Amino acid sequence: MSADEELVETTVGSDLDADGIAALLGEAVLDREEHLNAPGFVIRPDAVQEVLTKLRDEAGFDHLSCVTAQQYTDRYESIYHLTSYDDRQREVSVVVPTDPERPVSQSAEPVFRTADWHEREAYDLVGIEYEGHPDLRRILLPQTWQGHPLSLEYHQDKPQIVTLDAHKNPLEADHRGNSETMFLNIGPHHPATHGVLHLKAVLDGEQVADVEPDIGYLHRCEEQMCQAGTYRHQIMPYPDRWDYISAGLLNEWAYARAAEDLADLEVPEYAQVIRTMSAELCRIASHLLAMGTFALDVNGDFTAAFMYAITDRERVQDILEDLTGQRMMFNYFRLGGVAWDLPEPREEFFGKIRDFLDHLPGAAEEYHNLITRNEVFQLRCVDTGYLSPEVAKSYGCTGAVARASGIDYDLRRDDPYGYYDELDWEVITEDGCDNYARLLVRMREVEQSARIIEQCVDLLEDWPEDDREIQSNVPRTLKPDEDAEIYRAVEGAKGELGIYIRSDGTDKPARFKIRSPCFSNLQALPAIAEGEYIPDLIAALGSLDIVLGEVDR
Amino acid sequence: MTPTFTPLQNDAVLLPERLVDLLGLGEFGVAGEVVAAFLGAFLVANLMMAMTGVAGPWAKRKITAAFTDRIAVNRVGPFGLLIIVADAVRLLSKELIIPDGVDRPAWDLAPILIASTALLGFAVIPMGSGIHLADPEVGLVFVFAVASMTSVGLVMAGYASNNKYSFLGGMRAVAQNLAYEIPLIVVAVSVVIFAGTLQMSEIVAAQAEPLLVIAGVTIPAWYAFVNPFAFVLFVAANMMEIGRNPFDTPEAPTEIVAGYQTEYSSVYFVLVFLGEFLHIFLGGAIIATLFLGGPAGPVLPGIVWFLIKIWAVFLFTQWLRSALPRFRIDQLIEVGWKGLLVLSFANLILTAIIVGVIA
Question: Testing the interface with A: which of B61, B62, B68 to mutate, by most A Cβ within 10 A?
Answer without folding.
Answer: B68
